[in-house]
Amino acid sequence: MTEKQRPIVNPEDLPLDHWSEGGFFESSDVSFGSLLGLTNLGIGYGEVPPGKSGCPFHNHHVEEELFVILAGEGQYRFGPNRYAVKAGDVLGAPAGGPETAHCLINTGATPLKYLSVSANARTEICEYPDSGKFLAKTRDASGKPQFRFIGRPDTAVDYWDGEPGI
Predict the structure, then answer these.
(1) Using an 8 Å Cβ cutoff, are 86 and 63 in contact?
(2) 3 state DSSP class of 164
(3) 8 A C-beta contact, residue 120 and residue 43
(4) Given 88, 133, 145, 159, which residue has the most CB atoms within 10 angstroms?
């Protein structure tokens, strides 16, 4: 066990990273799986203010996610449906196409607090159905990002484009 690793972590004792983007996306969150010595499992804690979402509507092609609502209430947008959620609810987001796209929205009057647990795949493709984007990313065995690209399918080029002698 390294100096930073420990067998028990209380996310409320960890410093949160606060961020916001535009008028709808905002969160204070922290990833802490590495503090527990985990390399193949991602764990995070998030607090989303009323009326906000902690991420865009998206689906994963490789990683599965699980969310545990700790406090507050909100709406779980999953595929074409929306579900009311509250403290104690456990939400699944299996890997797949747009039918498994998901995001949490705080519809309550207090912060929506939750744990997120996911596979920590070394390679992942995510789609964002609302904006038509995709994300391709890889990371090394230690979790350090190696490659990351966000784009849209209409910017695709032919396999041989730009190759010498073509």
Answers:
(1) no
(2) coil
(3) no
(4) 133
We report the CATH number of the domain holding residue 69 as 2.60.120.10
What length is written for the chain?
166
Per-residue model confidence as pLDDT tens digits over 6-30: 899 999 899 999 999 999 999 999 9
Tens of pLDDT, residue by residue over 61-88, are 999 999 999 999 999 999 999 999 999 9
Rg (CA), the chain: 18
Number of domains in the chain: 1
Question: Could you count the other beta carbons within 10 Å of the beta carbon of residue 32?
Answer: 19
What does the DSSP 8-state code read for residue 15?
A: P
Does residue 80 form part of some domain?
yes
Provide the domain limits for residue 83.
11-121
